[in-house]
Design brief:
Shape: globular
Number of strands: 21
Radius of gyration: 21 Å
Length: 439
């Protein structure tokens, strides 16, 4: 039985504290039929509808003053097909629950992002990704999905069934309908060996192509105001399993990466002049380590320090020059940046509005501690990213609009034409979609 719920004063807020919305009503459907009924009822009342996952987007992609659908009750695995190598899950399932359930079944996704608090539908709809030489975003691992469209009907799509919807809806921004179930390609569980080690920024940038080519998953964090990075290489391993020890794991992942880092952020926010010195210490705090574990325990890590983030996808061949420009800008400015800059990669995919659509991609993510003014830094970074035809992550802070996207996405018109067909009355519209897709 679906329930209609209200938050405190009926206000919904996202994880990063950057968005607040006051929907007319909030609905928690307990079945696909109830979700479809909620969409039809919204149409009768002349209200727009948005589904929200865990609120991990920094943009207002899920905000609405109409009907807010919360899919907490639409969770769990519907079906595992070992022969086909697929698993079908309800849209509200958190990635954490999916990863743990798959591991119990001896299965795993091929690649994933670095946090797993999001729902499967929220993560894929906004293009959440990890890093990979050959393996792409979470959405690129989808083989089929089911969505409720604006008239309340249920549409299933895959490469064979409604292929034009499948091409777009895997990263659909909630603009084409409300996803109710997703089928992912999975594989037998495997082991990854992670090798984490500090390297100088000059070393990483001069060897970037080699580091990318030699590793299945390569990423690094550069600490602004320093010439230091922390690198991470994840590669498949024959074993044996050698997880991070409990004490070492607590010390490095909780105490240093969350506890001490949180205190450093507070200090930097209170006295910005101390940030460069703190950055020098932070960049040297984490020592080299190697461990081997099942994929989700290697790919993901806890993120307890709240922040605001902007991330852009640039052509992979432009990443080193883009990063050097960012460093020059930070060095020349009076900006004090206490959060590391994260660099990852993805191969080209065939999803209409995926940030890696049609081109081999590198991602550069800039962060600021929650509550610290971020506009000057993000504006400067965005000017550099857009000069390289960067595509912003759909769930992270950016100022781009439909006119810009039409220039950096060759298939942009294909997406908006499909939206005109599936949602002519803009039942799923909100201010964010109006800006990024046009009205």
């Amino acid at each position: 039985m679906s329930t209609t719920v209200s938050g405190r004063n009926g206000t919904w807020r996202n994880w990063g504290g950057t968005v607040a919305a006051r929907p007319t009503r909030q609905v928690e459907p307990a079945s696909v039929d109830e979700l479809a009924a909620a969409v039809r009822k919204a149409a009768e009342d002349g209200l727009t509808v948005k589904a929200v996952g865990s609120g991990h987007s920094f943009t207002s992609v899920a905000a609405t003053d109409g009907v807010l659908i919360r899919p907490q009750l639409l969770t769990g695995i519907r079906n595992i097909d070992r022969e086909a190598g697929t698993v079908t899950v309800e849209a509200g399932t958190p990635l954490k629950r999916l990863n743990m359930a798959l591991a119990r079944e001896g299965l795993s996704l091929t690649n994933m992002g670095d946090i797993m608090e999001q729902t499967v539908s929220g993560a894929t709809s906004t293009g959440t990704h990890g890093t990979g030489r050959d393996s792409a975003s979470i959405a690129a691992q989808i083989t089929g999905l089911e969505l409720v469209t604006a008239d309340g009907s249920l549409l299933t799509c895959s490469e064979k069934e409604n292929p034009e919807v499948f091409a777009a809806a895997r990263t659909g921004l909630g603009a084409l309908g409300i996803i109710t179930a997703i089928t992912f390609a999975v594989e037998p569980i495997f082991l990854l060996t992670a090798r984490e080690e500090p390297m100088s920024l000059d070393q990483v940038t001069s060897r970037f192509d080699e580091l990318w080519a030699e590793n299945e998953h390569f990423e690094f964090y550069w600490f602004p105001h320093t010439g230091s990075t922390n690198t991470k290489r994840n590669n498949r391993s024959a074993g044996p399993e050698q997880p991070v020890g409990q004490l070492a794991g607590w010390f490095e992942d909780e105490f240093l990466s969350n506890g001490v880092f949180q205190v450093a952020q507070w200090a930097g926010r209170a006295v910005p002049a101390t940030v460069p010195a703190i950055a020098q210490i932070s960049s040297k705090a984490l020592s080299a380590r190697t461990y081997t574990d099942i994929p989700y325990k290697v790919f993901t890590s806890p993120r307890r320090v709240r922040f605001v983030e902007m991330e852009y996808a640039v052509p992979r061949e432009a990443v080193v020059e883009t990063l050097r420009e960012l460093k020059r800008t930070v060095d020349r400015s009076g900006l004090r940046i206490s959060f590391p800059v994260e660099v990852r990669t993805a191969p080209a995919d065939d999803i209409t509005l995926s940030t890696a659509s049609g081109r081999d991609t590198a991602y550069i993510a800039v962060h600021m501690f929650k509550g610290t003014p971020y506009q000057a830094y993000f504006t400067a970074a965005e000017q550099i990213f857009t000069a390289h035809e960067g595509r912003p992550h759909w769930g992270k802070v950016h100022t781009r609009d439909a006119e810009y996207f039409a220039g950096v996405y060759p298939r942009f018109g294909e997406f908006t034409a499909l939206r005109d067909r599936l949602d002519p009355e803009r039942r799923f519209q909100n201010d964010y979609l109006r800006r990024v897709l046009g009205s």
